[in-house]
Amino acid sequence: MRTSIYPFVLLCLIMIGNAIHSQRLADKRIVIRADTILDGKGNTFKNTRIVVEGDKIVAIDPKAGPIDYDLRGLTVLPGWIDAHAHITWSFGKDGKNVGAGETTPEAAYRSAANAWSTLMAGFTTIQSVGSPTDLPLRDAIARGALVGPRILTAVEPLMGRGEQTGTAEEIRAFIRKQKQAGADVIKIFASQSIRQGGGMTLSQQQLNAACNEARKQGLRTLVHAYKDAVRAASMAGCTQVEHGTLATDDDLKLLAKNGTYLDPQAGLVIENYLLNKERYLGTPGYTEEGFVAMIKILPMNHDLVQRASKTPGLKIVFGTDAVAGSHGRNAEEFIDRVRDGGVDPMTAMVSANSLGAEALGMGDRIGSIAPGKQADIIALDGNPLTDITSVRRVVFVMKGGVVYKNVPHARH
Ligand SMILES: [Zn+2]
Q1: How many whole angstroms separate alpha carbon 8 and alpha carbon 10?
Q2: 98 CA distance to ligand 1 centroid (A)?
Q3: Helix (H, G, I), strand (E, B) or coil at 142
Q4: Model pLDDT, residue 43
Q5: What kind and span of H or E run contains 144?
Q6: Fewest CB atoms within 10 Å of the CB: 121, 127, 313, 360?
Q7: 223 in Cβ contact with 233 (< 8 Å)
C-alpha cells in the first residue's frame, strides 16, 4: 500500500492551507524583529522591525511592537525568485525521470510536493516554463488550496523546428493561443539542446515574429538559446535569454545594450543530472553521449557566468532550470554562481530579488523589503555575504504575509 500515502499528503496540504487561511484572517498585523536585513536591492538594514499587515509590508520601523517573530541572529531577506524551473518534472514509480509527461494522480501529488519543497527552500515565486501541467498547480496555489510558491507559467512552448515551425503568421497564431490558454509568459526554443550541439532551430524572421507578437499581447518572452541564437533573440527584442552557453563577449555586450535579461545556469542543473544519472539515462533526451557532453558543458557554463558578470550593464537574473531531483535544492545554484562563477554574493542575492522581480515585470510588487511590497520574507541561519552555503539553511518563510516555516534556531 505504498501509494496510499499520497491522498493523505494531499489532505494534509489542504488542511494546512485552510489553517493558514484562517491565520491570515485572524492575525492582521505582524511585527518581525531583525538585526540583519538585506533589502533585495543591495542595501543592508541593521536592528529594525518589519511591520506586515494582511499580505503586505506596511512599514520598516525600529520601534514597532509588539514583536511576533524575533529573527535576530539570522539574515532576513525577500523571498527568492527562480526565473526558470520545471515544477512538474518528477521521477516516476520506477524511480526514473518522467519529466512532466505523466498526468496520473501520483504525478499530480509529486508536483504538489515539488511546490511545497520549493517554498520551504525560500523560493516564494517561480517561473515554471514549458508544461501545460503547470497551469492547474499555479491556479490551486493562487487560490490557497495548495502550499507552494507563486507560479508564472508558459503553457506550451514554441519549439523551433526550422521551416516546419511555420510561417510568421502561424507562429503569431500560436503565441495568441498560449495567451488564451492562460500563459503568463512565452517560452521559445530557438536552439537545439547543447548536448546535441546547440544549433539554431528558428530563423531570425521566425524569432522576430514570435517575440513581436508576444509583446503585442502584453507577454514577455523567454528564449532557450545557445551560441548564435543568443544574439538573434536579443535582436528580435525578446525579453530574456535562457542558458546562453557559448555566447561571445560581443553577444553579451549586445544583451546589455538592448536590455535583454540573461538567465545562465552556473551548475545546479548539470550537477543534478550527474547526481541522478541512473534515473535520467535512457529516458527521452538522455543518452550516454549526452552525459559525456554534460561534463564538458559544466566548465563552459562557469566560463559564461564569469564573463557575463564582468559585462557592464548586463542584467543577470537567477534561474536554476530545476527539474526532477532539484526541487527544494534551487539555492545550490547560488553557491555555484559565487564559487564557480565568481559572482559577488550580494549580486547573487539581488539577482533573485529585485532584479528577478523586475525581469518578471513584478518589481512594484515583489523582490524587496519595503513598504507596499508583498510580505515575502525569508530568513537564513547564517549570512550569505560571508558564507554562501547559508542559503541551504532557510529557517523562516513568509509568503504574502502568511508564515509557512519557522524552525527554532540557535541565537548566534
Ligand atoms: Zn528549462
Answers
A1: 5
A2: 15
A3: helix
A4: 98
A5: none
A6: 313
A7: yes
Contact assessment for residue 401 and residue 24, using Cβ atoms and an 8 Å cutoff: yes
In the chain, the amino acid numbered 52 is: V
Mean pLDDT computed over 391-411: 92
Cα 39–Cα 117–Cα 392 angle in degrees, nearest 5: 55
**Separation between Cα atoms, residue 226 and residue 172, nearest integer Å:** 23
* Average pLDDT of the segment spanning 218-227: 97
Confidence of residue 330 (pLDDT cuts 50, 70, 90): very high
Taking ligand 1, which is a single-atom ion, which protein residues have CB atoms under 5 Å away? 321
pLDDT at 28: 82
Q: Which residues contact 248 (CB under 8 A, 6 or more apart)?
A: none
Q: Which of 229, 341, 244, 283 is nearest to 89 (CA)?
A: 283
Average pLDDT over residues 7-11: 45
Cβ–Cβ under 8 Å, residues 82 and 320? yes
Ligand 1 centre to CA of 261 (Å) is 16
For ligand 1, the distance from its centroid to the CA atom of residue 78, given in whole angstroms, is 24
**This prediction's pTM:** 0.93
Q: How far is the CA of 35 from the centre of ligand 1 (A)?
A: 37
The chain-wide mean pLDDT, for the chain, equals: 93
Supply the angle between the helices 228-235 and 249-258 in degrees, to the nearest 10.
20
